[in-house]
């Protein structure tokens, strides 16, 4: 996912949070989040892949590897741009290459 997808992440979580007050099932909550993210966006496509991994019965490790293999670089401490002076993440966003 690229810089900017944080907006869709917020929308996704907010929609699920709102739906959780009235939903009868977990699936209803997840669907509300999925529908709140625009079709065709990379975030939506990634969500669809995660749901497909779940539907296939993959373990979380298998799903993680599938998403990492398909969508790009692994996010690790070395790629998170930790600022040496503060030991906290820098304000420079990670960009997709």
Q: What is the overall pLDDT average?
A: 79
Helical content stands at: 40-55%
Order of helices and strands: HHHHEE
Q: How large is the count of helical segments? A: 4
Largest sheet: 2 strands, antiparallel
Number of strand elements: 2
Rg value: 16 Å
What class, by secondary structure content?
mainly alpha
How much β-strand is present in the residues?
under 5%
What is the terminal separation in angstroms? 10 Å
Stretches with pLDDT under 50, minimum 5 residues: 80-97
Global shape: globular
Structure description:
55% of the residues lie in helices and 4% in strands. The termini are close together. The longest helix has 16 residues, at 5-20. α1 packs antiparallel against α2 and α3 (42-55) runs antiparallel to α4 (60-71). A two-stranded antiparallel ribbon has the order 1-2. By secondary structure, the protein is mainly α.
Note the topology.
Elements: H1 5-20, H2 26-36, H3 42-55, H4 60-71, E1 82-83, E2 88-89
Antiparallel strand pairs: 1-2
Question: Which descriptors would you attach to this protein?
Answer:
97 residues; mainly alpha; two-stranded antiparallel sheet; 55% helix; globular; disordered C terminus
């Amino acid at each position: 996912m690229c810089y900017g997808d944080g907006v869709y992440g917020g929308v996704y979580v907010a929609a699920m949070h709102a739906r959780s007050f009235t939903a009868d099932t977990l699936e209803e909550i997840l669907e509300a989040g999925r529908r709140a993210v625009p079709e065709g966006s990379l975030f939506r496509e990634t969500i669809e892949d995660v749901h497909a991994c779940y539907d296939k019965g993959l373990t979380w490790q298998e799903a993680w590897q599938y998403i990492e293999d398909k969508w790009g670089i692994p996010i690790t401490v070395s790629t998170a741009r930790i600022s040496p002076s503060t030991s906290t993440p820098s304000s420079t966003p990670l960009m997709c290459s």
